[in-house]
Amino acid sequence: MQQVKVSVDEKHADLLNNHSSYGFKDKSSLVRNAIDYFIKELEIKKLKESAVLYNEVYAKDAELQDLTNSALTEWPE
Asked: Structural domain tally of the chain?
């Protein structure tokens, strides 16, 4: 694994120093977990933004709405 040097505020240092009380074996595992969580949150944000854009396109496209509705009427129950 690569090592990096970061600077943190005192409250962040306190949290890192108490890593074991949060169930982490060391400071690095806490930081890696936090970064993984942040990455997932960014992906969710991108998906939500994409869904909003698709919704806007769909709302303006009557032909696409008709196509969707016709497919739904033929869908088995």
From this structure: 1
Q: For residue 23, tell me if it sits in a domain.
A: yes
Q: Are 30 and 19 in contact (CB under 8 A)?
A: yes
Between CA 26 and CA 24, with CA 2 as vertex, the angle to 5 degrees is 15
Could you tell me the pTM of the whole model?
Answer: 0.74
DSSP element (H, E) containing 70: helix 62-73
Residue-range definition of the domain harbouring residue 35: 10-73
Please provide residue 9's backbone torsions phi and psi, each rounded to the nearest 5 degrees: -70, 170
**Per-residue pLDDT tens digits of the chain, which is 77 residues long:** 999 999 999 999 999 999 999 999 999 999 999 999 999 999 999 999 999 999 999 999 999 999 988 888 877 77
Whether 3 is in a domain gets the answer no
- Please give the distance of CA 13 from its chain centroid, rounded to a whole number: 25
